[in-house]
Batch of 2 targets.
Target 1
Amino acid sequence: MIQREFKALLDDYAHSPHRQNVEIITHAFNFAHKAHYGVRRLSGEPYIMHPIAVARICVREIGLGSTSISAALLHDVVEDTDYTVEDIKGLFGEKIAQIVGGLTKISGGVFGDQASEQAENFRKLLLTISDDIRVVLIKIADRLHNMRTLGAQPKDKQYKIAGETQYIYAPLAHRLGLFPIKTELEDLSFKYEHPDTWEEIHSKLEAVKQRQMDSFEQFAIPIRERLTSMGYQFTLKARIKSVYSVWKKMMKQQISFEDVYDLLAVRIIFTPNESMSEKDQCWMIYSAITEIYRPHPERIRDWISTPKANGYEALHVTVMGKDGQWIEVQIRTDRMNEIAERGYAAHWKYKTGESDDSELDKWLREIKEILAHPEKDAMEFLGTFKLNLFAQEVFVFTPKGEVKTMPLGSTALDFAFLLHSELGEHCIGAKVNHALVPLSYRLRGGDQIEVLTSNSQHPQKEWFNMVTTAKAKDGLTQYFRREERRYIKHGERLVEDAINMDKDLTDKRDQVLARLLNYYQLTTPNELYAQVGQGTIRLDNIHEIVFPRQSWWSHMPFIGKKKEEPTPGPSIEKGETKSEGEKPKKKAPHAIVLTDDDLGKKYILSNCCHPIPGDEVLGYMDERGQMHIHKIDCPEANLLKTSYGKRIYSATWNTRRVQSFVETIELKGIDKFGVFIHVLQAITQDFHINMRSINVSSDDGIFKGTMEVYVYDRKELEELLKAIRKIEDIKEVKRVVD
């Protein structure tokens, strides 16, 4: 079995365009096979099967060569055996050793148990972008194979790994242009987080797949004829939406599977003629298609004139098929398709010279700038980097007409920081299309922006609420850190001067600092210096603070009193979790059962996502031992899964319809006489559900309403929504989460 898989790897490599160097790959395989001999994975298969699978992903799905394949085969040797990076260097050379060393630093997942460890491990992963981006590409391949074999892991590990994958690895693959891998990572994460929902949508997709393919064949006939008559060599491919993509659309638009109409997309991949530019030929094919099918005027996407930040180039148009269905057509050359499929590796293959400076190159430079000043707090660091991964883009212009790519939602202040940190720090506003706008103005595609500055302007803390890009947030963070250091230096000098001016204090410097910290309830001298430097603490009464009179000493609440310890939260099982510092009697199982008696007491239902019985949920234990219940797809839960995997617990409901929960539903429809009466009848008479509040408004014949209702569980809520949808003139009904 092992030899068969290794032969398949060599076959994949033989069919790649790389210069063949089978000897080094075979050497790496033999060495790794011997190093891992006798070790098995949780699935029971020999461990060496995993490095082989990762190496096959590297060559077949990312397009990497012999150096990366060899490093992939060796990627767990240093971590799991007695061999060192120096051993690898002596046997395989410095470059392979450097990549293996980079992979070893980030082994065991990006995230550890403690926040500081998480930030450091994650930073190590990103720093490899500066050293050799192949480390990150191989790590993504490693994560893809781990996701493909995740079924062997226990449930709580599945939640942690899937959450981490969804939060970081899928967006990272997207940003590096690995679209098929990004899609599969998202789909597999969704499969393990929502197995029942995944299976339901997957079954429905399989049921309609043949019908979609028949529709594709009919749709493709006239396109094939036209492109053949134009003399092109081309391939037509059909792409069905992934389960995760379908579910995301269902959730976003609050529609059923049957109402998702754009399941099918068509891809045209052609070999361009050398006599014309690729861009001109893409538009010629666009013209040919729109002569056959009517285009949607608002759904044309030109990613050729201005490629995406991950290097993606294509021309998209949505047209109406003969059966009345909208179908997206993606037009690409062979080169564009390879970059779309293999991302960064293919991007470098097609670089033509040192002057090439794609959006991907600019992004990598920006990441390196952020890494030069990492956040102290792990969660902030994660959030800052995450901003740079999955944002949609708008294209704007400088006064001289230079195109700049900005994440959707960026402000004028973000743009100023993009140009230069000093422009951002002194920005007072901007002119957009020659009209004056404030710092908080949100940019739109096509805007031409001129940044206005003043030397008297300096950043304010409120600016953090005005920016969305990682570069702007990092720029503000660096400014305030510099200011803090300046205040500390100034404050330390003022404290020293105050001590030196009082003879009673001169020889008692340490005692003076201790008394001042105690008096102002501060923990470190730097906190004291910073507040003194800013002027929020004055030292006029320093003598009285250090030598207090007894009359008021005894009334100081923070002197001589023991700091109260936090009350420990409830345990998750009888006798399992004790107060902080006390060793538990037995290890807590990573599975909990939610009962009516425990809800709101032993288990807290989180306000961020309002879970109710029937929702797919998980538990998160905080530092005090309190268990919080979140929906599995709650954004807060995704961050917790990513960062505190060992505190995540699988959870199931065992309630008896005793408690009711307030849920908000939103509906929209045609404002006809009596329509809302039917809604109220469905709620109160058909379902006997109580209501807490109603808010309805009407505008130009359309009404919108929100209602807070008391329901026992998700099933009752879904049945209510289904009944309301059947009412004539009701067009949209959905559950709302704040």
Target 2
Amino acid sequence: MLLLLLVLIPMCMAPVCWLISRRSKHGRDLCAILTGFAELGLAIFAAFRGGQITLDGLCGLGLHLTMDGFRAVYCVVLAFMWAMTLLFSPDYFAHHHRRSRYYFFQLLTLGATMGVFLASDLFTAFVFFEIMSFASFPWVIQEETDGAIRAAKTYLAVSVIGGLAALMGLFLLGRYLGTLELSAIYPAAQKTGRLPVFYTAGGCILFGFGAKAGMFPIHIWLPKAHPVAPAPASALLSGALTKSGVWGILAISCNLFRGDPVWGACILALGCVTMLLGAVLALFSIDLKRTLACSSMSQIGFILVGVGMMGLLGEENAPAARGTVLHMVNHSSFKLVLFLCAGAVFRNLHRLDLNEIRGFGRKKPLLTAAFLLGALGIGGIPLLNGYVSKTLLHESIVEGIPVYGGILKAVEWVFLFSGGLTLAYMTKLFVAVFVEKHPTRQAEFNAMRRYLSKPAAIALGLSALVIPVLGLSANQTMNAIANCSADFFHAGHLHHPVHYLSAENLKGAAISVAIGAAVYLGVVRTWMIRNGRYVNRWPKKLDLEDLVYRPVLLKLLPGLFGWIAALFGENRLTGRFAAGTLNGAGRIAKLFGENRITKPLAKGACTAGSVGSHALSDSLDGAVLLLSRTVFRQSPEPVEDKVAETLSYRLGAGADRAAALLGKEKQGGRRYARLFYRLRQSFRSAWRQISGNLSFALLMLVLAICAVFVYILL
């Protein structure tokens, strides 16, 4: 029951907050904050209790939730992030509009995201994943500017297309494995053998969940959505929602493709490109939140490198698995802090361009300390939590070099170089905001002493405190997180303890620091600054969305299908053919006239046309019938082995005894017992019919939404 409450409480409190906002804005804010902290307390309690729950028949295949070590860790992480952002939000939105809508969808998304991580099968995860995608769409479009609307459309398009691709993969897996339960996927795959169709299904699921994670080449929404979304929403988009995409990738990588080097190599390649490209885009950006967004893409690449190494190392995957889960947790903590800092800047200046916010952070100790901890943590500096997870990921690559040779040596240098770029762009942000002075407004910035309210300052301080606490107590806290997550990752055992501060591990960090210093001094300070102003040197024509996706979806495909359709339309090719056909038919009709030969032919043509028309008009009914016979077919009613033990039968038996005492029935009769039992069976049958029809209606609604979306897009 606790697991269901984790999902339902925020979802049910969303309309409550909306109703409260009709009377009191302060009451709405307080209700949302209390809901967030109640969810955090419940998540911690449920993490120790564990358990599972099954809702059979809901959404057709039923919903199944479970709590284990990894799920417990991330449910607490999610609840903490939502509690901190909700505590920060009233100050950030003090002068904004449409705040009730924001709180409504923030709580709704919290419940759906919890559902994703608690799912024990892929179908349950997909249902909550789609709810989460649509519920988070209003975050991106919150400000309703032209940029926000365009970014929101991109986000929605990627979510819908990715969701449909993932659904196709789930259908394939369900067809060939007979199950979508995570614990049963690997045994079923071993029993059926490694079929090529599994890679097709895996590719579809990877596309769907990778789109939400921000994986290359379907990362296009991420650099566009974060700059236009409110800062608390950006923190959740980056630190929480991207991890739901990673969860889906892990679900198939650790189960369907457990120990598969081919799949591992594919994920590793995508991870390397995502890691390096995200760092390069962040280095070129001069927008504070866009830089952090591209940084999220890069850090997701680091996580995917760990997932890929798990496949390549097989049973020796312990360092890769531990590094993956710890970097997921660490990245969530980094982005919570950094985006809240960006929110503090935007709240006061309503600007994000580095040239316009330069020097704002000077003489602001809390903001400086929080941002510095986030920057050093994400850069992998020793004694902070990011160093621990990056050390484990680096060690997994080094352990694979003797087996895979030069390829992994190249991966190691891409890893270290990307870490250096991370330090370079974070140094660029810190120097611009906290070290340099604004040429004209510095005195105004220095006078802004009350740049945060007390609740917002508490949220920022608590979020920043997590980074050094985890880093300094790595052997206790972070090892415990890795150990309790091992079962979900099917990780092997560490053959030796990891000495995080050994010379070999410090050497890797030192190489990244040296690369970062060289890039910052040699590239940022000399090439990316002109006349004292930061310049974005990235060519606009290399925007993947405008360069590839929009032309393909809005021009190439409509043009191609339009050209094909034109071949059969009224043009010179088919027009002349149609005219010739009609003339020939006319001459033949004149030759035969209304006689016994043409009348049967005409009647047959009319009959065939009528049959065809009815077939087309009834196609939807046919689809309904097909679905009712396959996907939504009613399973047989469960057989009651012990009828006499059912509650309805016992109540009826009590009524029989009472009637016998009153002289209305014979002693020992079973009239009311059988009647009550038949009523119970009728109610159960009706409920099953209603549930099935509701599931089918939801499916048809999704198909209708997809059709409308395709119509609008094309």
